[in-house]
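Quick illustration, no need to memorize.
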Amino acid sequence: MLDPEYLKENVLSILMTGAGILVAYSYIKYRNREFPCVVPFPLNLTVLSDALYFVLTTTIFHGSDPAQMYRSARKRLGDVFYMGPMLSGRHYCPVLVVTHPQDQMAIIKKERELELLVALPETNVAIHGEENLNNLSVGPRHAALRKLFSSLLSPKYLEHFTASMVATFNKMWNDLEQKNEEVHIQTVIQETQFKLMSKLLYGFHEDSEEEKEALEQFLNDFVLTGKARFSPRGKKSTAFKEGKAAKDRIFQVLSEKFDKILQERRELAENGDSNNKDSATLSNALEQIADALIQSGSGKNDGSPGGVSYDDAVGNLYLLLEASQGTTMQMTTNLMFLLNHPDNVRCRERLVDEVNKLSEPTYENLKNHFPYAHGCIQETMRLCPLVGNVPYFIKEGKSFPLREKTVQGPVVVTLNNSHWNRDEDVWPEADTFIPERWLAGNPFEASKFAKSTFHPFGYGRHLCLGYPMAKLAMAANLYCFASKGTARSIVFDEEKFEKIFQERRELAENGGSRNNKNDNTTLSNGLEQIADALIEAGCTGKNDNNPGGVSYDDAIGNLYVLLELSQATTMQMTTNL
């Protein structure tokens, strides 16, 4: 029998020896794969092995920043390489990373033949539901649903929504200017846009206290579902359980609202006042969905006449909000940070000049005659990508050619694009905010290849459903932000964060309770939460290099918005990480 004391004293050596044997075995078994493998681990290991795989991968390829890891792996291994099953979600199969845009487009061209399915984790599938567009493989059912929901964001309806967007964002900035106090701008933007989208998409209002309370609950539930979809601890986590309960409440609210609207629109059609296609007759997107179902002859518990059933339509109402709201909220706060950085004063001034030349904020003008603003939006999505890669599951029995080789399913093919975004060979001065990259004919205009690597909203038939509304909302917000005739600006209060960081660190070292996970009364603001997260990750202060994935300098670089806004003085902004 082995001596327990010996095992205890030599545990590291034993683990390293075991890992070495495992890697050697894996190399022998997987060395003949058609493409190289980052770390040649067996592809049927447990979650514990996933953790070991992740440690080895991030150690070999320079830290836990995913874009940097993919960029380093591409330069060492080539444009196509295998990874372990860590990123295959619920499918638990080999993961093939495809980085070159030409190879990516070749695969997307076969998406119908391959029946591509986005490989999302179980938590995401459980929140969205099996009938959700993101959880359907490419095919007739997916195509019918996408056609219906894409029509909700057609130019005609976006034109109808534009006036409400501009009025809402004008009010938001004007209200903030009148407050002589610190505000958490990320929260303000989130709540403002959420209420706006809830009104446009679902017909929510705030005319009474009861309606305000219902909308507030709806917002809180939306936030909970967002945390649950990618909960790192899976379905057993508190975050997932709370998010699942929130999702059920959301679906109940939306189903009840939709049933009422469907009945009203059906009665209207039966009385001869059938669905007028003039967008002015529609107050929200639910009415358009109802009209589409009525025209196809579909009702509750029907199958799928006309390609879309009642259950399919209702099951995707939540996705409509997520697609149009989630991206916009994150990108808008990032946009405020980058546009108002002290290094980017000229960008802000040029935006103001463009706004001053715009006759009025119509849909046509915001979409087609606002080029510098759209350059700012594109550049923000390049520097701060919300989606860095899209993993697609290809089932067993399917195969496709790639670089004169054949890839067999089951396999998850990850189309990674964000690793290009800060590649100096592709984007000169890659870390610099240069909206002119996106202006045709400008000396700084990005190359054709650089633009081909840029996919902020995904690929093909799984392209983000709400991207037209998201881009319009960001443009409308920019217009309102810069429409005073003078440039607002942001100053980052780094000294304030450094002081808080040192106070929280001293409190921790003296045995005090910093961030009690069950009692938020110990925290007075979001900066303390950021400081505590860095301390828990082992960060000791300035120049500490990326412990736990986020360094002190990273945190400082992303303080957006504790803000004091006024028309005559500078706005001061910082935000939660």
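DSSP finds 23 helices and eleven strands in the chain.
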